[in-house]
């Protein structure tokens, strides 16, 4: 395993204005002209939302954010005062790296489904303190093409079940097969449970957890190596290229921050960072940031 470890020396700002960078390459200038610029809300672009969260909590990557061209790397360009920074963004998936891209795709689809379903539900009902738990059971009917329709179906089922709940111990309803089939979900999830436990103050629509946070460094290493395979094709066009790995929305599916804290990987990215979407926690994983 191409892995180097070193003790963490403390994080400090990396993408600031104090360091000089090479001038913007012609290919990058052309990319800026042709890229799709999305001044999008998080509901339209979860990746953009994740990037903005990292920028807010870290103070890094200042500049104008430009969405990369569809199907090309990197995911984002940061047009800063000192050059253009390329940013690749990906979600951490515990134990899925060795299972191939299809498993990672399913994992990402499940997260996106619940995020969109929650937004659709709240657009009608407003913020509602409910716990919503889907169980997919290996069903594979969900796809990018039907993601929005499935999210609307989940929101509809939760609306029906949630309206019958009252706060208190044991306040829980489970959708039966007819409930799921009525919204075209019978081939997409095995179960859907809606609850309102005592003391609940906020909504939680996360997919069910499958265990504890990962402590296997191979999970992180394989993500970095996979992203490095495409890096050479565009590396020279940028003053810097960053890899951002964010913890998934699923509790227990992330990487243990305490284990990752002292770790440094040898990598051809200028900087690699791992961060949470729901807190201000972030850490650097590259040797250059030690």
Walkthrough of the structure:
The chain is α+β, with helices and mostly antiparallel strands. It has two domains: 26-94 and 213-289, Trna Endonuclease, Chain: A, domain 1 (3-Layer(aba) Sandwich), CATH 3.40.1350; 100-195, no CATH class. It is 30% helix and 16% strand. The chain contains seven helices and nine strands, in the order ααβββαβαβαβαβαββ. The protein has helices spanning 26-34, 46-58, 101-125, 147-162, 177-182, 217-231, 257-260; strands at residues 64-67, 76-80, 83-91, 131-135, 172-174, 191-195, 240-246, 271-275, 282-284. The strands form two sheets. It has a six-stranded mixed β-sheet with strand order 1-2-3-7-8-9, sandwiched between helices. Strands 4-6-5 form a three-stranded antiparallel β-sheet, covered by helices on one side. β7 (240-246), α7 and β8 (271-275) form a beta-alpha-beta unit. α3 packs across α4. The longest helix has 25 residues, at 101-125.
